[in-house]
Amino acid sequence: MVKSLRGMNDITGLESKKFNFIIETSSRIAKKYGFEYIETPLLEETALFKRSVGESSDIVGKEMYQFIDKGKNDVCLRPEGTAGVVRSFIQNKLDKRGEKQKFFYFGSMFRYERPQKGRFRLFHQFGCESFGESSVFEDASIILMIRDIFETLEISFTLKINSLGCSECMPKYRANLIIDLEKKRDELCEDCNRRIEINPIRTLDCKSESCQTKLSDSPKIVDNLCEECYSDFDKLKKILSENGVDFEIDKHLVRGLDYYSKTAFEFVSDEVGSQNAIAGGGRYDKLVEFLDGKPTPAVGFALGIERILDLVTLPKTDMEGWYFGVLDEENLETIFNLASRKRVFQKVHIEYRKRSLKTHIKNALKMGYQHCAILGSDEVANRTIWVKDLKAKYEEIISQDSF
Ligand code: HAM
Questions:
Q1: CB-CB contact of 132 with 126 (8 Å)
Q2: Domains along the sequence of the chain with CATH
Q3: Does the pLDDT value for residue 207 go beyond 90?
Q4: Is residue 402 over pLDDT 90?
């Protein structure tokens, strides 16, 4: 039997209902915040991710589904959504308009990771990207939007925030951090040693407890921000507090993608196991320029749909629609025509196999239909149809002509 690939799962049954509910809820809330839907390709030039997510990141270094296509192009399946949206923003010359543009998207992402609970090779994100607004109020607005999404989905979370500084304060901080790391080099793990050269800031979120202890007194970027970054971070904290959003400052939060500056945040849940990040994002003011667009500030986030599937409870749906059935199969054509007429306005199910009245009613109830419409020989002879409203619990015989 051919099976799906490791780390790539089907989403079916109740999970697919929850999946749709998450996308519908998130899309509705994103539209309220002024975001519009954007669809970008699943396959992009590898260079796009190398230049945006960054060659030093694990995503690009180890996890890309990369191959040479038949036209000898170096391509890869998108590991995340931001790079493609930024590419589209520049390619469609939206950067030249100088207007604020806001996009939301959802879809498949691919990372060749070691699969475990909450970590897949194919997973789905819902994400938003806001272009052209440098005010920290936009960072706060994105965080409030995620809060609204999780509150509507009844998911509890802890919000962690940090500031990664800008092109003024980050390089100075980075140089100081390298001096500190060099002193600790022998005590740090192999991964951290590698990162000292390629991306020293990422040592701060090393998963090894021993490294974390050694790095506890290392300099932190929030304590070394320039005046503008400091004031923006301060303002962000104030806006969040004034809007009733609790947060923790996590000085070790650096994110696994290289394009961030200033605000970085993660929403974590203690109900999902070790892969506890349910959403993440931040500001990436230099990325548009870096990908050859007109300098445009930007901020965004993505949430991991698989990570929250188990946390979502579907709202109780009311009974609705019409279930059609026959007692004799020769009456199928008539019931098919009557049902098709009803479908213009309502959700309809037609049962093609003949069943007893009792079984039809049982099926209709099980499937959540409000009305059960049945044709037997008497109804056919009188050109009528028997209908029971399963919610209001009354039945009637209706003429087929007025049905
Ligand atoms: P990210 O933190 O890499 O950010 O991913 C966002 C979310 O996707 C994570 O918080 C997690 O819930 C989910 N996720 C990531 N990897 C996996 C996996 N292997 N299996 C299941 N779920 C996963 C980004 O992707 C950025 N593009 C977010 C962003 C948008 N920043 C600015 N704009």
A1: no
A2: 13-169+225-311 (3.30.930.10), 322-399 (3.40.50.800)
A3: no
A4: no
